[in-house]
Design goal:
With about 170 residues, the chain is α+β, with helices and mostly antiparallel strands. About 35% of the residues lie in helices and about 45% in strands. A hairpin with a 2-residue loop joins strand 5 and strand 6. The longest helix has about 40 residues.
Length: about 170
């Protein structure tokens, strides 16, 4: 009887932990998709809300961007450049599945690591035609404060142009 009760308790605890991990992964998948939607629409204020004040961005093309204020300046500069291009606008789209791992101590979640790949898509302003122009990989370290997730560290690397694109 005791063994049966203990086994039932272990199974229920395991199912609860698995449900929590699945819930966190679903939530962070949505968070990531929301971030890239804001990125694609150049909604800099919303992007900054999703980042900690002390964010650090390590970018293999743009270099180190340190702090939310500097990220805002760089993001606005990028959006201005994108808007000034004659033909396309640039969108980022997640490729495949994200790898999402919770960070926790004593079973309390305090953060997460997200890794993935994005494709950059040029979208013609005139015709709406979409064409892949490149790709990159990313690593995010997220911090959970209360019930609010924010990006604390962003590593954007392995940028590649699509062959035949400039």
């Amino acid at each position: 009887m005791r063994t049966s009760l203990l086994l039932t308790l272990v199974i229920l605890t395991s199912e609860l932990v698995n449900a929590q991990v699945k819930s966190t992964k679903d939530l962070l998948t949505k968070f990531t998709k929301d971030y890239f939607e804001q990125y694609n629409n150049c909604n800099v204020d919303k992007i900054l809300e999703l980042c900690t004040d002390d964010i650090e961005v390590y970018h293999d093309l743009a270099g180190l961007i340190d702090g939310k204020a500097n990220l805002g300046v760089q993001s606005k500069r990028f959006c201005d450049w994108t808007a000034s291009r004659e033909v396309p606008t640039v969108n980022a789209e997640i490729v495949g599945d994200l790898n999402i791992q919770e960070l926790k101590t004593n079973e309390i979640v305090y953060g997460a690591v997200i890794t993935g790949t994005i494709d950059f898509i040029d979208v013609s302003k005139q015709t709406g035609v979409r064409a892949k122009s490149g790709s990159s990989d990313f690593i995010w370290i997220l911090r959970l404060t209360g019930d609010k997730w924010q990006i604390a560290r962003d590593v954007s690397y392995n940028h590649k142009d699509t062959p035949g694109k400039k």
